[in-house]
Design goal:
The protein contains ten helices and eight strands. By secondary structure, it is an alpha/beta fold. It has a single domain, classed as 3-Layer(aba) Sandwich (Rossmann fold). It has an eight-stranded mixed sheet, with helices on both faces. The chain starts with a strand and ends in an 11-residue tail after the last helix.
Length: 270
Amino acid sequence: MAYFEHEGCALHYREYGQGEPLVLLHGLGSSSQDWELQVPLLSQHYRVILMDIRGHGRSDKPHDGYHIATFSADLLALLEHLHTGPVHLVGLSMGGMVGFQFAIDHPQWLRSLCIVNSAPEVKRRTRSDWLWWLKRRGLATVLSVETVGKALAQRLFPKPEQAALRHTMAQRWARNNKRAYLKSFDAIVGWGVQERIGQIHCPTLVIAADHDYTPIQLKAAYVALMPQATLVVIEDSRHATPLDQPQVFNQTLLQFLAAACSPEGSLRPC
């Protein structure tokens, strides 16, 4: 285990393998541990870097600093700490939002970008948007993290053959710090950079599960706004695609990363 400090917050990170740096960012209520089905393969080809976003995993759970822009700044501090230079960045869900923010804030630090089951904004514009937020925020406030974890696990891994995975993930999500979880949830709602994603010029892959929370059409719409973005749909998958379809996810990502480089091994301009 390794830690570094950024603005008074101790952040946990891990490294595996050698090669071009590849950063994997987890989602809300998750941790770097949930990339366990990716690390063994990816670390054969890349220097894989995992970070627990503040408020998650083994990182500190401070009382403030829960903003997508702050998470982006934390990531930059880690890359500077590790002297990585530009990286390939993969973000799942909230991690994908951090990826969008990072691509806007620090484009010179990106070799490529992969967004998994995420979006460049979470806005409350309609009545249904507000009802969704009130329901989700209300349940997260009233219910224990154990109950929330069980409900999420059941929703994301409903198949009988996923019983072991369902049990494992429910246990992991039950270890969340409730205050940090709620503050991170609040960081997501109202955030957005969609009006600026046309500025993202590095090779970009958007991975969408066919049974994700949001429809594929919404992802296709924002993919069309980015000049070097491609959309790939993974079938028979829900929100946690790296966990429920690891083989397909891993091969899709590796193919993208290989294509993001020229035959001479140097990356196309970002």
